[in-house]
Input
Amino acid sequence: MIVLATILLPLVAGALLFALPRQDRVLSRAIGVVVATITLVTVIAAGTTSEWSFRWLSRPFDAAFHFGATPTSFWIALLLTVATACAIAASREARLRDFVAQLLLLEGAMLGLFLARDLLLFALFWDLMLLPVFFVLIGWGEHPATAWRYFIYNFAGGLTLLLATAAFGVIYGSTDVIGRAAGPLVGAWAPWIYAGFAFAFLVKTPVWPLHTWMPPTYSGLPAPMVAVVSAVQSKAGLYGFLVIALTLLPHEVHAYALALMVLGAVSLIYGAVIALTQNDAKRIVAYSSLSHLGLIAIAVGSGNPIALRGALVYIVAHGLFSAALFLVLGYVEEREATRLLARLGGLGWKNPKLAGALCIAALAALGLPGLAGFAGELLILIGVYQAGYVWPVIVALIAIVVASAYFLRLYQDAMNGPEVPDVPVRGDLTWPEALAVAPLLAALVVVGVYPAPLLHP
Amino acid sequence: MSHSLGVTGTYPLVLTLWLLPLLGAIICWAFGPQLRTMSGWLASALVGISFVLAVASWSDATQGAGGTLGAHQPLASWLPGFDFGLLLDPLSLIWTFIITGVGFLIVFYSIGYMDGDRAFARFFAYMSFFVFAMLTLVLSDNFIGLLVGWGLVGLASYFLIGFWFERQSAVAAARKAFVINVVGDVGMMFAIFLIVANVHSINFGAVFAAAPALSAGVLFAICVTLFIGAAAKSAQIPLHTWLPDAMEGPTPVSALIHAATMVTAGVYLVARCAPLWDHSHGAQLLVGGIGAATALVGAILGTAQWDIKRILAYSTMSQIGYMIMGVGVGAYEGGIAHFFAHAFFKAQLFLGAGLIIHALADEQDIRAMGGLRRRMPFAFWVMLTAVLSICGVPGFSGFFSKDAVIYGALQHGHPWVYATDIVTAGITAYYMFRLLFVAFLGEYRGEAAQAHAAAEPAHRPHAPAWIMNAPVAVLIAPSVAIGAVLMFGGENSPWQRFFAPLFGATSSRAIALPPVSEGVTTLLVFITVIIGFAIAWQRYATRSAQADAVARLRRESERMPALLTNLLYFDWLIERLFVRPAQQLGALFGRVLDPHVFDGAVRDLVYWARWLGTLVRSFQTGLVRAYALILVAGAACFIVYYAVAAGVR
Output
């Protein structure tokens, strides 16, 4: 029951927020933070034991409104609620009430997705979670074309997911299968069903060459929203691979593993070298995301148990550092009215807290040993190598070197060097602003030093 | 802890001495503005206490033999086979002594050197963090912990090179150092993959126990990939180019990180992994060769520099080449002895240079010095004793350690390495005495150089405070005498006996009878040193040379061969082979492929779909609200359908 409350709370609160007076910015943010924090508590309280199920369909196949965390989705749900609470706390947008409401609706939709134990529910929440992002891109974004590009691309993925789910249900007889020790699907249709799933998952992650919706979306979205989207929404596809495809269609995953690894490896190096030359700070992080998530695709393809455990660590790590990076870059843009590296510089002298926050996030992202990103990367690559694949490991190691170059460029061009004279100098982070990113940075250290809880699901 | 090098059980002393500097870093970082100058005293006190604790744990660290040598403290476990712990054995104890002992002196010196800097407390936070990171590196009992320390010292080095981050040159140097060190980290990561795949453990004890059973190819691959990490950290060619640039950092940083401790991590790594190297002749040949080549290249480049810190940087690179060569060929005691002696005399050289730079208002060009012997007699004696030590003049510490390394090369059957080392010793004497003569003899040329910058008031040399002099004075004693005390007596010296439990089995492998005895080696080295000294004397110290010093030095700088001014083209090659191609590829992907090919394909698809969809164009009102309505209506239909379906069930 408590798991149902977890999902409904942000959805209902988000809807009710529209009833609040439009002008009350502080109150709407405070309500948003409180709701997101309570959701965080309920996710922990629900744990992996609380389940709620209500029978829905028996024809043409069995389906149920069945929610409950799996050992994998528990950590992602935790990441989601932490990221959302931090994002709402960091929100300073215009029309704040509506913006916070959209963030809460997004949280609810994604909680539904990750806590769904029924494939049909999963597919429906998949489409539902696109809507808040779409509306925010329309209402707060830089160009409406970006919104449509995001929506068409991901809705096409949602469509193949839904079709594949329907086919799966008809053949398998039930879609109430997530996180259950059910046998794999076999038969002539299985490769096609896998193709439907894989297309949706690869678009959402995204993986090269299906990524072109992502850089404009990530740079166009306001910082708090993109923090949640890149931290958690991008993991929906990887979660699908880890929890759904690997258990229900293991033969197909294995049969096409090489293709998945090639796509992951190309994403890895392609995103990294593009990030090296971008001028827009948010685009650098966007392309770095393409690069980093390619590594998880490689981990899935390798099928090695250590790599898969590492993949969960890296999912959480990437969520934490990409959320922190986007939130801090949002602070920078808010202060300096630009996010072009060529225009920024020397902020570190007057903004030591801002510089420190960006520094920790960037270091975690470039895989500094001792922070979360490193633990995930290392375990994934140990596993991939153990599985006998040497070339993806070498590609990944090259990408790690390139990552250190572009993340240092991002940090140094913004924070170091002489102060740029014509850029306004504003105050350092206020306490509320600092507190909004502090949990993410603290979690990066904790997970980096002691990832063991994530490794023993 | 099923596999552990060292006795099982806990050892809180090592935990405390490891964490104290971290505590110092956190306090200095969080309360810097409140602490002000107190942060320097606090940081040095905590590092000093760590040193005392290291001394106190001497007997526990040297207890036992073979697999149960030293004191052990388990920390945590990630997965089966991934256990973390701290290990204090003779090898890590020696490094801990230098890190905390010399570290204490340098941090204390910094209180004077960094006086008045606007980020005073931040400096001490970074220095303390470095000490913590370096202790992590040498105290870890496993390869991942080692790699964590490896990465964190790289980070501390990055922060401190770029400490004055308003200077673009410092920022660029910091980035270069970090990226090259990530190349090393990545090499070590690959070694870890090899190790885990073959041994299923990351623990030193388990890996070394399994080493004899590994195939020659795997063992060689592990050694080579580990050595990529060692080469990057210890500035071995071709990954050395970051070290001279790293001199952008404050001078105490150069003394602690880029001379005494961090850059010797590669020496530690090879010595720690002695059981691996012992079983791979190919790796010994490779590492010994690269070490000797680095020693030679560093010495050659050192002859062509004018910046006092860059001369010392190249000499560091060269001396680490000696150490790497020593541990590479299997002369572990000799390589470590040279690390030990070098830590003292090189820290002394850098701190002495710091006295000069501090007094001359940040002047680092030795052409603008001269005549400092009379103006700064203390600095002169500091530099002189250290130069005698680094050149290996008999009786000084450097003599014992350098001889041990050079003779070790011959003992282990590498005559070419041996010959290179002897030549290098002569070049070392030349460039070190060149530094000494140009900076300290003759007349002060500073005013002449400053006459051009007329507006600025001439900075006259002034005496530094006792805070800076005292640590340097303390360093003189070991850099002169520690060799005679510890390393005198060949096989029976205290130094050899100290390491006998660790390398006992391996030092007996000193193969065959060398064609030349140790006494002859000493003589050969001494002759080349005299030759190097004589050339330097002839060029810079004679009466005629000093009479027209300004003109001579200008002529020398103008006629410097292009090969030397371009630093043997290492930077040039790295730039053209790696940096520029990566940037061009990024530009190609980002500006051409991404927008026009991959996105273009999707746009074309949409275009054709639209062409087919002219029939439904009437729905395309262009109003966002209408689209949203259609969307919601569609979703509603879907839900109603299934609700009804559920009803008729």
